Amino acid sequence: MHAHIHLCHCRSVNSFHSHKLRKLMEKGDSNELYDDDGRTRRTGSLTSASAHIITAVIGSGVLSLAWCFGQLGWIAGTASLMTFAVITWFTCILLSDCYRSPDPVTGTRNYTYMQAVKANLGGFHYKFCGIAQYGILIGATIGYTITSAISMAAIKRSNCFHNKQQQGHNNHNGCHTSNNSYLVMFAIFEIVLSQIPNFHKLTLVSVLATIMSFTYATIGIGLSIAKITESGGHPKTSLTGIPVGKDMPSVEKMWTTFSALGDIAFAYSFCPVLLEIQDTLRSSPPENKVMKMASTVGVSASTLFYMICGTLGYAAFGNDAPGNYLTGFGFYEPFWLIDFGNLCIVIHLLGAYQVFIQPFFAFVECWSNEKWPENKFIRKEYLVIGKLRVNMFRLTWRSAYVVLATLVAMIFPFFNSFLGLIGATTFWPLTVYFPIEMYISKAKIKKNSFTWIWMKVLSFTCLMVSLIAAAGSIRGLFMSLESFKLFQSIS
């Protein structure tokens, strides 16, 4: 059986490709098969990049927006969504120019976010970026595992509610179900999908996931409109959200507001994979131009959906909006449509999980290859069926990762607080700090100049927002832990 070596962005592979490129240049057909760095020609386009972005952006964050509006109200809720959208779009434009260094069109490629930070800012920032980036990617996969299990459990509960109503009573006791079996089911699917070798092979998964995300968001919008048009009293909404009073002390209002900001930040947490997405694009037109257009398309489409979901969800449920409006059972009927919406969430998150975790998989595999270059267990790929290749190290390590992430999801199954904490801890370093610092370095912005000052002020302001949002989410997690029994997560 012939072994084939397939690795990610390691130096050894670069030299292997460079040698191959020189050979092909002698034959005169290099333009057809390989890019300027000696790697297989990239085929990504504006469409595929936009699909990757929308897959990464419109995730489970959309489901908590009605709850966020409930905490913040019409004014702060709308303003927060727009502000996070504009900041994310702006920093993505800055980040798109960091794919190549020093020149954004003809410079050397930076295949990952971390490489871009190393090329532009140096060693200390590189290590800080690694901790922040891989921390958020791991956190996102745990969050997606929790959300998918809750959605799968919601399908069972929805059918239970429907059957009880058909029997002539609305008592929903007995419809609760354990999440553990659904967590395991999701993990099995992810172990299979994790064998997709790299980001470049994910386009089909991303396109399917994007369709699913639009589908379940549209279902949520449709159900919200139906609820708004129902006869009877309309739920109470306000300009400032849930009013301070007997049921909502001022301290509690402050904490839930902070947590809601974290949830909105999570809704835009795709910057950690932006350069990995850019690395899938073909060279002409220049990658940075296409990525800027893709970022504009992705952020605009996502924000429009977010705004519609948040405002209609809040109008439908008012200040009592559930934390997750497809699984929190603000809706009971039509039960089949709620089931389909939750199924779309699960399919979408199966893909989004891969979009987020592939850079971490690549990092560990590259590091292992450079550490043990002669190890056959790590390096060999075996041809199994047709073009299907299996690498034993990849199979073992990626499967082990999915199992560990699922165990953590079983221990901390708290949807809103978990999303808020991930969003808060990622937003400042990866979405704001590094793009701004790299731009200042690349463009040689003079210290204390007007541009330098306003960019630093923007970065500091976002740091403060991230800190208070993280504090709100951590408090929410501790509050949830008080009544939680280990491995007994119930929907």
From TrEMBL:
The keyword Transmembrane helix applies. GO terms for cellular component: membrane. Keywords: Amino-acid transport, Membrane, Transmembrane, Transmembrane helix, Transport. It holds the Pfam family Aa_trans. The chain crosses the membrane at residues 49-67, 74-96, 131-155, 202-226, 254-275, 296-315, 335-353, 395-412, 418-436, 457-478. GO terms for biological process: amino acid transport. This is Amino acid transporter transmembrane domain-containing protein. It comes from Deinandra increscens subsp. villosa. The lineage of its organism: Eukaryota, Viridiplantae, Streptophyta, Embryophyta, Tracheophyta.
